[in-house]
Amino acid sequence: MNTAALPPPVPLCPIPPRRRLVLRSASKRQMEVSGIDSNGREFSSASEMWREEIGGTGTEAAGSDQTKLRDWYSKGISYWQGVEASVEGVLGGYGCVNDTDVKESEAFLKMLLPLRFGKEKRHLVALDCGAGIGRVSKNLLLRHFNEVDLVEPVSHFLETARENLSPGNIMQEDDTSKATNFYCVPLQDFTPEPGRYDVIWVQWCIGHLPDEDFISFFNRAKAGLKTNGFFILKENTTRGGGFVLDKDDQSITRSDTYFRELFERCGLYVHSARDQKELPKELFPVKMYCLVTEKPRKGVNTARKRKHGNRPAIIKS
């Protein structure tokens, strides 16, 4: 999750039944408040929540309590260190969503690659952020890129990824594709190699980063993109304009509106967006964003789609 990136671990994991009941009853009130945590506590604003959690607003790093911020990240990492390094583990008990997740991600990626790169022959390189055990790299990225780098803060996840992505454990049509670099670094501390990546893929992990670290990460990562390169952010979302704070793994699930405000602060534009389909009804809605550094030309679909889905419950990548 962040994985590969956080401390807080990256991917999100489903909320246990006891807490899921709390969120279901509270979800009806989300339009009346700015946010809620997994214990049912309501917050009038994201700033109030960040002040309590990290001693600052979450958008002013200098104003945050560094001890609280370290605790935020260490608790997240500790949570994921206790999770089994398997598909079922990183997906929080929802291994059943793996196939549909990969299918929808691949359709989105295959639509974007020719739009961004045309028929140009490129040596394609991707970065898998919050890579976990290499699930996305193995099932998706290595089928479309010549090289894939992985960044993941949870060491036993990354070691499993090394094994899963070794030449003898992957089947691929093009044997020139390979997992190249494995970085055991949290996203808030990671800086990509300048100009190396065509696509930077961030899935089920960015919720571990407070707003300021979210913005700082994307600002650093922009320099890692090649010409016409882009980000794919795939994340859980809430309905309405509120947020949900998970007190167990120290992560925040943001709304589409919340995300778009942060994208603007990062100097990023939504090239296109798509809703993930065919997920269990109890999970949060999941959205995919293609983010670019230049303003899209008119005619490119940047319209917000109406969100579908039912009760919240979190996933991890």
UniProtKB/TrEMBL annotation:
It catalyses: N-terminal L-prolyl-L-prolyl-L-lysyl-[protein] + 2 S-adenosyl-L-methionine = N-terminal N,N-dimethyl-L-prolyl-L-prolyl-L-lysyl-[protein] + 2 S-adenosyl-L-homocysteine + 2 H(+); N-terminal L-seryl-L-prolyl-L-lysyl-[protein] + 3 S-adenosyl-L-methionine = N-terminal N,N,N-trimethyl-L-seryl-L-prolyl-L-lysyl-[protein] + 3 S-adenosyl-L-homocysteine + 3 H(+); N-terminal L-alanyl-L-prolyl-L-lysyl-[protein] + 3 S-adenosyl-L-methionine = N-terminal N,N,N-trimethyl-L-alanyl-L-prolyl-L-lysyl-[protein] + 3 S-adenosyl-L-homocysteine + 3 H(+). SUPFAM superfamilies: S-adenosyl-L-methionine-dependent methyltransferases. GO terms for cellular component: cytoplasm. Gene3D superfamilies: Vaccinia Virus protein VP39. Pfam families: Methyltransf_PK. It comes from the Eukaryota. Its EC number is 2.1.1.244. GO terms for molecular function: N-terminal protein N-methyltransferase activity. One of its GO terms (biological process) is methylation. The keyword Signal does not apply. Keywords: Methyltransferase, S-adenosyl-L-methionine, Transferase. Belongs to the methyltransferase superfamily. NTM1 family. Alpha-N-methyltransferase that methylates the N-terminus of target proteins containing the N-terminal motif [Ala/Pro/Ser]-Pro-Lys when the initiator Met is cleaved. Specifically catalyzes mono-, di- or tri-methylation of exposed alpha-amino group of Ala or Ser residue in the [Ala/Ser]-Pro-Lys motif and mono- or di-methylation of Pro in the Pro-Pro-Lys motif. This is Alpha N-terminal protein methyltransferase 1. It comes from Rhynchospora pubera.
